[in-house]
Specification:
Layout (H helix, E strand, L loop, with lengths): L6 H8 L3 E7 L5 E6 L2 H4 L2 H14 L7 E5 L4 H11 L2 E8 L2 E3 L11 E9 L3 H13 L2 E10 L11 E6 L4 E2 L5 H4 L13
Helix pairs in contact: 3-4
The protein binds zinc ion.
Length: about 190
């Protein structure tokens, strides 16, 4: 590993959001890394540094408002909205479908940035993209703090993540760390 650590990786590790070791994930699979983005987003300076990467990427776009799927994306939409001085909204599930509640409104023709903390399958983000497009507004792009999709997502609009984390997991029986008899950690909250 001769490459220098990126400032984004530095933040994720310093805040404890990204841990190295031997973990059993909620899926039951094993991994040499554990990730909990919220731990990085609890620090204002880190949220700002990470969200600046997103606003820099879309700096040339005229953006009217920013929206995220609840819950993980809320700190991201708040900070991006603050940095760009634009409205910051979030969508949430009602009867299973991503919906604008609380009186949030997007007008047809508005230019909207969709943001998220972590993109894994991209399902929630895709639903928010559709929600915005069905209103008749334009999605200028998707910005995330961390891309854990291993390059598998396509939202049909430009996608940028401040940090791409390659995710490698194994079924327990194939786990090389188990084979080395390294003790396994079982983090409490959801990860994958
Ligand atoms: Zn293992």
């Amino acid at each position: 590993m001769s490459r220098e650590k990126s400032p984004e990786l530095e933040i994720l590790e310093r805040s404890g959001a990204l841990l190295n070791g031997h973990f059993e994930l909620t899926s039951g699979r094993h991994s040499d890394r554990y990730f909990q983005c919220a731990l990085a987003l609890q620090y204002p300076e880190f949220v700002q540094a990470l969200c600046c990467r997103i606003t820099d990427e879309f700096a040339t776009e005229q953006i009217n408002c920013v929206i995220a799927p609840a819950v993980g994306g809320i700190p991201v939409t708040q900070e991006v909205g603050r940095l760009l001085d634009i409205r910051s909204l979030f969508a949430e599930r009602q009867d299973g479908a991503m919906t604008l509640r609380r009186g949030f409104k997007i007008e047809p023709g508005e230019r909207v940035l969709v943001v998220e903390d972590v993109v894994t399958t991209g399902g929630s983000v895709q639903e928010v993209v559709q929600l915005v497009q069905e209103i008749g507004a334009e999605v200028v792009g998707v910005g995330a703090i961390v891309d854990r999709s291993n390059g598998t997502v396509d939202f049909g609009v430009p996608f940028f993540a401040a940090y791409c984390q390659e995710v490698i997991t194994w079924p327990q029986v194939e786990c090389p760390l188990c084979r080395k008899q390294q003790p396994v950690n079982k983090p409490g909250s959801r990860s994958l």
